[in-house]
Structures are given as C-alpha cells and as structure tokens.
Amino acid sequence: MTIGIIGAMEEEIKNILEDMNVIKTTNALGLDFYLGSLSNSSNSIVLVRSGIGKVNAALCAQVLIDLFAVDAVINVGVAGAIDKNIKIGDIVISKDAIQHDFDTSALGDEPGYISRMDTSVFVADERLVDIAKEVVEEIGFPVYEGRIASGDQFVSDPSVKDRIARLFNPMCCEMEGAAIAHACYLNKVPFVIIRAISDNAEEGSDVNYERFFRESAVTAGRIIKNMIAKI
Ligand code: ADE
Predict the structure, then answer these.
(1) Which protein residue has the closest C-alpha to ligand 1 atom 9?
(2) CA-CA distances (angstroms) from residue 94 to 62, 117, 132, 198?
(3) The domain containing residue 7 runs over which residues?
(4) Is position 199 annotated as part of the catalytic site?
(5) Which residues, including other chains, have CB under 8 Å from residue 109's CB and lie 6 or more apart?
(6) Is the pTM of this model over 0.70?
(7) How far, in Å, from the CA of 195 to the mean position of ligand 1?
(8) CATH number of the CATH domain containing 66
(9) How far is the CA of 79 from the centre of ligand 1 (A)?
(10) What is the tally of structural domains in the chain?
(11) 6 contacts 75 by C-beta, under 8 angstroms
C-alpha cells in the first residue's frame, strides 16, 4: 500500500521524516513530497508539509492523490480543544470532519453546509480509525474519537469557540483536516485525521500553543509511525 501523510507545518512532519528512508523527493506547487518507507513496515509512504489552512491542505491532498495514487491519507498535526473533557496533550482521532467557517446561512442554509454538495460531513475510514485507536491505547493515552472542525482561523476567542461548540459539537478545531477530508471524499480515498491538542482554543491559547505545539506534534508523529506498521 502507499499511504499519504500530510502535516501543515515543519514541526508536524519532522519527527516522521527523521525516521523515513526517503528514496525520492518530488516538488510540486512548491511543496516537497517525500516518497519512502519506515523500517517497521513494507508500506510505501509519501510525506508532505501542506502549509497552513484549508486551500493549501486541499491542493496538497489533490496533488498527493494525483501524483502518487495513494491508497489512504493520514492528516497529522495539532489542534485546539473544544470539548470540555479534552486536555492539552490528548489525542483526537477523527470520526468525521466539517468546515466550521463555511456559511451560507444568509441564504437559509445550516451553518457548515457546503452548498450543492451531497454532504458537508466527511466521514473517516473505519479501519484507519480502528488502527489509530489501537495505537493510541497501546501508548497509554485515552482514546477520543469524534468530530474535527476546520476553518481558516486560529481560534482564541471564547465566543468563537462557543459558537463552534454549539453548532458543530466537535472535539477539537484546527485549520486543515476537513479540507483534506473533502478532497479525499471527492477522490474516494480513505482518510483519517490524528490531532494532538496544543491549546484550549480560548484566551491564552496563543501562549499555550507556542508552549506545547512542538511536544504535541511529536506525540502525533509517534502515533502515525506506529499506525503505518499496522495498515
Ligand atoms: N491548531 C492548534 N490550535 C488551534 C486553534 N486554537 N485554532 C485553530 N487551529 C489550531
């Protein structure tokens, strides 16, 4: 199998890249796509840093699918907690993903509804979710499987957080997952999103983010590496 792994930032892919045996690097859209493998698995991997935000993420996912015909996509990174039970350092596995900033409610649509598409909720692949759960349990973390809400916005305002919580009831928010999920849905490629919590998406989240995101990214990377061996 060939598995695509997308992280938005250097710090989110660094830890995986360090352990990879890279056989070829392809540049497209100014992004480096690293093709290779990990020593724990015969699966091929294509690892790429997409850049931040939904458009960068969707474009990157499309190139990954077009150039490498990946059999599955894993999105790895950090996120802000929305659900009250979720703490900094916890891991969230996507059950599904939505775009919290998609809004044609002025036209009578539900917030988050993507006009004229047959779905706005992108459901993660069950098998990938199960593998992620197994790995998270094995490394001794609590398993949180739920909705991930994405938008082109770093959430640090409690009223924005409350709106997202009220309308979409996600476990966490970030800036790429649902865009990658959207691209995977249109291409019929299975996906899962794995996010480590770096902040609480409210006042002070910028400070917590700066303090914790590197550490959280390392945890998320570790999970991905262990997942690859089981896929
Ligand atoms: N990624 C990590 N923390 C985030 C936040 N608070 N908002 C959006 N994306 C994030």
Answers:
(1) 174
(2) 20, 21, 10, 16
(3) 2-230
(4) yes
(5) 115
(6) yes
(7) 10
(8) 3.40.50.1580
(9) 5
(10) 1
(11) yes
